[in-house]
Amino acid sequence: MTTARDRFTGRTALVTGAGSGIGRTVALALATEGARVVAAGRRPEPLAETVRLIEEQGGKALAMSADVSLAADAEALVRAAVEHFGSLDVAVNNAGVFRGGPPLADLPEHDWHTQLATNVTGVYLALRAQIRQMRTQPAGGAIVTVSSTFGLHAASPGAAAYSATKAAVTALSRGAALDHIRDGVRINVVSPGATETSMSLRPGETETDRAERARATLPLGRIATTQEVAAAVLYLASDDAASVVGTDLVVDSGGSL
After folding, report:
1. Fewer CB within 10 A of the terminal residue: the chain, N end or C end?
2. Among residues 124, 148, 166, 191, which one is catalytic?
3. What is the pTM of this model?
C-alpha cells in the first residue's frame, strides 16, 4: 500500500486554474505526493509562482498558459503533459469563473456567456481531451472536476447563473464517469462550499467579517481551507478511491445540510 506521501509517485497530473486558490493548493499537494505537475491557467505570472513553489519543495512542474474554453488549448495541455512527462494519469478540472452579484434579471448577457464558456464548455473540452488520452494508456487515469455546492446542493442570491453552470458541470462529469469507467478512466466531483479564497468574500467584506459570518451560519462554525478541499481531490484521484466512480463529494462545513 502507498503512504500518504507517495500516492502519485511516477504519475503526471494536470491541474487547471492552478495559479491561485484551490488550484494552486491542489497542484502543490500533488507534487508533494510525487506527481509531476502541469500547472495550467490563463495568466503566466501566477502559474510561474506555482511552479516555483513546487520546484522549491523538490518537485517537477511545467507552467502552461491556456484558455480551457478553447478546444485547441485543452488539447494542447494534454499534449504537453504527454510530451514532457510521458503520460497523463491525473487531471483536476478546477478552472472556473464567477460573474454574479445582481439578480438574474439584471445579469448582463456577457456575464452569462463568460460563465457558461469557462465553467461548462471548458470542462467539456477538458474532459474530452483528457479521456481521449487516458483511455489509450494501459493504466487509464483519474479525473476530478471541482464544482460547487451552488447548483445541486445550495442556492444564493445573485448566483443563479453561476449555480446553473456548476449544476451542469456536476451532471456532465457524472455522466462522463458512467460513459468511460470501462475505458479505465475514473471520474469524480468535489463540490466545495465557502472556502478560504477571494471568491467567498462578499462585496466589501473582510476576512474577519467572513469568519464572523461563518461562525453564525455554518454548522462547523468556519469555512473550509484550500488544503481541506485539496485533500478531498487527492483522495478521489488516488488509488485509495479505486472503486469510487461518479461521486460528488461535498466539502462545505455542513452548509448545505
Report:
1. N
2. 166
3. 0.94
